[in-house]
Amino acid sequence: MIKCVFFDLDDTLHDSSRLARLARRAALHMMISKGLPVSLDEGYSRLVRIVKEKGSNYPGHYDLLTEEIVGKRDYKLVSAGIIGYHNTKFAMMQPFSDTLPTLIELKKMDLALNILTNGRAVKQWEKVLRLGLESFFDNVIISEVVGHSKPDPEIYKSALDIAGCAPGEALFVDNSLACITGAKQCGIKTVLMNRERQQAPSDCCDIVIDSLSQLPEAIESFI
Amino acid sequence: MIKCVFFDLDDTLHDSSRLARLARRAALHMMISKGLPVSLDEGYSRLVRIVKEKGSNYPGHYDLLTEEIVGKRDYKLVSAGIIGYHNTKFAMMQPFSDTLPTLIELKKMDLALNILTNGRAVKQWEKVLRLGLESFFDNVIISEVVGHSKPDPEIYKSALDIAGCAPGEALFVDNSLACITGAKQCGIKTVLMNRERQQAPSDCCDIVIDSLSQLPEAIESFI
Q: What is the ipTM of this complex?
């Protein structure tokens, strides 16, 4: 019987990838309007490559972009990019439309809910608070704090400890196949959140859903 | 004859101190609403002390505040503080009411205008852009980029070089007596921006004003 659900955050409870695309295009718009000599599409492609090379938590994406395009770090253009990115991110961040209705249903089923996410603690908490999700969750478990990242089995063990939950009573919901695999190895029941309905191996997880609204029924199938 | 004016940014062109007070009180409001066990006034006093001790560019004011009050760094509360601070700062940042009318007058007088400010380059540029001031200024000269800070005479010499202006043709406007002194040592004419009408030594500068709108007339007195 499932007593406890662990949710991934980014791209599971809110559309993190779409938000990042929007915010980065807004950053380019601002930088171009302040003089960066590049087309929107080319600048965006370069920025995406830099983010891929350096990782999303690297603090100098726009510095590198201006160095590439104008031959030196241009602080005005860097600031313009940061303004465009932040304004868009904070204005547009919201849960998926099925997130809150589903969380309310799960609370009515008396389930303990937790977030289990990779990332920097302050950044991940900022998203939880800005999304207005915090009251639904007993614990927000973040890789930076635990000292291990998904899909390392250690983070799932720590998460079970923190939530006071046995593996057989736990369900893990994530959009990442790799993270699902780590949870499976710990004996946790797994749900792949597959909004894009991409091809996934049939044995990858216990259940595949394409909307969070399918989750209450999926959980009842385990009881 | 004055050809070129250098303006300080913070507390000269916009009300930086008031904005910081508002934003820090908003940060405390958010932290308390998310569980920080402290009164608004006591929390605010502690935060102000931490900012004073560590400097305003230190990145961990809220971390230290939670450590002090709850005995450990609390990422949720830190994030709540950052959200309150940033939301307020970005919503409320605006030039003084006399800033834009005065800058327009000075442009009509064919003066070259520059900003000369202490601080981190990306942060100072972000303010210039968010305040909508950038089109008025030929140069935004920032201590981090120059490698010297006001009142070190070197930064005024660099500023004159960048602006292509002789000391005798330059005017420097700042709310800080210390920064005025540095400019005077370089032979630059000086205007103390004294909005609060505080006591100032009579020989501290060439002219004292309490509103930027007095600046065009003051400049004509030098011609």
A: 0.83
CA–CA dist B142, B138 (Å, integer): 13
Which one of A75, A122, A128 has the shortest CB-CB distance to B78?
Answer: A122
From the CA of B195, how many Å to the nearest CA of chain A? 29
Please state the pTM of the whole predicted model: 0.88
Which among A82, A122, A145 is the nearest to B79, CB-wise? A122
Residue A58's CATH number? 1.10.150.520
Tell me which of B30, B75, B141 to substitute to probe the interface with A (most A C-beta atoms closer than 10 Å). B75
Joined together, the tokens standing for residue A97 give 């439309």
Exposed, middle or buried: residue A173 (CB in 10 Å: 0-12, 13-18, 19+)? buried
Closest CA to A186 of A166, A206, A216: A166
What is the span of the domain harbouring residue B57? 17-92
- Measure A14 CA to nearest chain B CA, in Å: 18
Amino acid at B80: A
Total domain count for chain B? 2
Mode of pairing for the β-strands spanning A170-174 and A4-7: parallel
Residues present in chain A in total: 223
Q: What is the pLDDT of residues B134-169, one digit of tens each?
A: 999 999 999 999 999 999 999 999 999 999 999 999
State the sign of the Cα–Cα–Cα–Cα dihedral A166, A133, A91, B11: negative
Q: Under an 8 A CB cutoff, do A126 and B34 touch?
A: no
